[in-house]
Design brief:
173 residues; mainly alpha; Rhomboid-like fold; 68% helix
């Protein structure tokens, strides 16, 4: 749980700094198919439009990271790094020409990773967590298809696909 709380603390700190500079850090989000926009692959999950956006991502992120880091068989550091990178690159490749920010791509990636990885892990514990994750967060996948202004469905889709791919790489081969 410490990892999840540390993550939320880091997000809060970044949002406070962003608020202090008038939201100018958001320019470091993903701007698809531009060379400067590649910086956002690394920075975009740390950035949020406002405190409400941050709050919406903080709880799910803390819980999902707690589950991920609760079992070394998930290869949590590598899995998180790959989900972060692949979801960002996916958003950079398919995103509409707008700045994409927020941790939701990683949230979608963790949800799909935890569900799919459990199929290959042959662990009752992993299966239990995948069922919990599905019931708590399965409705998120509606966000892939629900297009609304200001919401990066491209980040959601890229995150979900990244999670499936990382589960396959880490456990299915």
């Amino acid at each position: 749980m410490e990892i999840g709380l540390a993550w939320v603390g880091a997000l809060l700190l970044v949002e406070m700094v962003d608020y202090g500079v008038g939201g100018r850090l958001d320019a470091f989000g993903i701007l698809p198919r531009t060379w400067p926009g590649l910086v956002g692959v690394i920075t975009s999950p740390l950035l949020h439009a406002n405190f409400a956006h941050l709050t919406a991502n903080a709880g799910p992120m803390a819980l999902l990271l707690a589950i991920l880091f609760s079992d070394a068989r998930y290869h949590p550091k590598t899995s998180l790094a790959l989900i972060w990178l692949v979801s960002g690159l996916g958003t950079w490749l398919i995103g509409r020409p707008a700045i994409h920010i927020g941790a939701s791509s990683i949230i979608y990636g963790l949800v799909s990773f935890l569900i799919v990885a459990s199929l290959w892990m042959k662990s009752w514990r992993a299966l239990f967590f995948s069922i919990v994750v599905f019931f708590l967060f399965g409705g998120l996948f509606y966000g892939i298809f629900h297009v609304s202004a200001g919401v990066s469905w491209e980040g959601h889709l890229s995150g979900a696909l990244a999670g499936v791919w990382v589960a396959w790489v880490m456990h299915g081969r």
